[in-house]
Amino acid sequence: MRRKETTVSNNIAQEPYVISTPTCGICNKDGYVEATLEGYLQWNFGMLIQDAFPTMPAPLREQLKTGTHPECYQKMLGR
H-helix or E-strand containing 33? Predict the structure, then answer.
């Protein structure tokens, strides 16, 4: 039996995808980040987050990893 290859269509891979983030350790609220499905899958399969989401601002990548909202991170730093 031949193995079937599965691919994600480029249109679907580039569509915005809402990703739930961990609970923020500062405000204890949940959050979400919008990103491409392609980037999300690449990150989940081991790609570095900055390579999987090269156009995403660093504070949103931090939220995706740790759950800390950009505003909460600023408060934590006293800014």
Answer: strand 31-36
pTM beyond 0.90: the answer is: no
Which of these, 71, 64, 58, 54, lies nearest to 33 by C-alpha position? 64
Measured in degrees and rounded to the nearest 5, phi and psi for residue 45 equal -95, 15
Tokens at 75, concatenated: 């408060």
Identity (one letter) of the amino acid at 14? Answer: Q
Query: Is the pLDDT reported for residue 27 higher than 60?
Result: yes
Helix residue ranges per DSSP H, the chain: 10-13, 37-44, 49-52, 58-66, 70-76
CA proximity to 56, closest of 70, 45, 77: 70
